[in-house]
Amino acid sequence: MASSAFSRLLNLQGHFQQMKQGGRDGNGRWHVRVSPDVSDALMCGSAVVALESTIISHGMPYPQNLQTAKEVEAIVRENGAVPATMAILDGIPCIGLTSEELEKLAKLGTKAQKTARRDIAYVVATRGNGATTVSSTMFFSSMVGIPVFVTGGIGGVHRNGENTMDISSDLTELGRTPVAVISAGVKSILDIPRTLEYLETQGVTVAAYKTNEFPAFFTETSGCKVPCHVDSPEDCAELIDANMKLGLGTGILIAVPIPKEHAASGNLIESAIQRALKEARDKNVTGNAETPFLLAKVNELTGGASLVANIALVKNNALVGAKTAVALAKLRKNSNYGNAESAS
């Protein structure tokens, strides 16, 4: 029994040692490059939190994007977890970025391709630079075994989506990739009721944190109730652990309301959203260009208030996500210890 466990540990060490290099393996297959601190944490069963990078490249200008990325990573570390910001750099998927790589991505800005799952192969094949969205970050998280991922808000069904079929790949990814996504819900530029209906169809567990109502990103409430309620990081960890052990194969969406002190500007932001939506329709802005356009326009119309709120909610999500990852790591270690005791 001990020999078998030692063998598995050696295999795991070799796997992550290879992943530290990036590029192709001995069989010519592409694999990702995992930073040393992330690979060490994963090998030891310690808490790791995945972070996407589109918010860095497309969410705000330099140097504010770099500062925010560093602050979010710091929050994760201060709460006991290892941050794993993800991006594709020079064609290599990177799990965990150095300070230099973060700065490179921040300076590239929108020159880095916004990379969803469908774009991964192309960005890798052309040795390009890609900023990961929710769907691609979930894909890479699942590939290396990171169960908790923090973002600002997920994509969803766009307004008038019943006619345009404009539905974010984030939703289908949640339906097929077993990673828990901690977010502030769905941006109110989207159709929230239809988004929740679509998630139900995909079999995705949707839980709200310390509330019974689904948050709408910039505001605490959306008018939509959720079927699941969690009150603590430990509750979140139990939910994630049950989902993984049951082998459901689907993700979990844990929606955390924006902090109350920043929700006060919600009405101002909502008014700006309506104006931005009208302008997007008038200018025929569609597809993956729509959300960046709308967020930039809303930020302009609110005099920067929406960006301040956006940063605040991402940091709050990082706090909840890090505590959840720590609770999950502790739960798994206790479970493994109990199993080992039973086996002996």
Provide structural commentary.
This protein is an alpha/beta fold. 52% of the residues lie in helices and 14% in strands. The protein has 15 helices and 13 strands. It has helices at residues 2-19, 36-44, 54-57, 64-78, 99-108, 120-125, 134-144, 161-164, 169-174, 192-201, 233-246, 260-263, 266-282, 290-301, 305-343, and strands at residues 23-24, 30-31, 33-34, 48-51, 82-89, 92-95, 113-115, 130-132, 148-150, 180-183, 205-209, 228-230, 252-255. Strands 3, 4, 5, 6, 7, 8, 9, 10, 11, 12 and 13 form an 11-stranded mixed β-sheet that branches. A two-stranded antiparallel ribbon has the order 1-2. α1 (2-19) packs antiparallel against α2. The longest helix is centred in the C-terminal third of the chain and has 39 residues, at 305-343. The termini are close together. The model is unreliable at 1-14 (pLDDT under 50).
Annotation keywords:
11-stranded mixed β-sheet; 13 strands; two-stranded antiparallel ribbon; 344 residues; 15 helices; disordered N terminus; alpha/beta
Topology:
Elements: H1 2-19, E1 23-24, E2 30-31, E3 33-34, H2 36-44, E4 48-51, H3 54-57, H4 64-78, E5 82-89, E6 92-95, H5 99-108, E7 113-115, H6 120-125, E8 130-132, H7 134-144, E9 148-150, H8 161-164, H9 169-174, E10 180-183, H10 192-201, E11 205-209, E12 228-230, H11 233-246, E13 252-255, H12 260-263, H13 266-282, H14 290-301, H15 305-343
Parallel strand pairs: 3-6, 4-5, 4-9, 7-8, 9-10, 10-13, 11-12, 11-13
Antiparallel strand pairs: 1-2, 5-6, 5-8
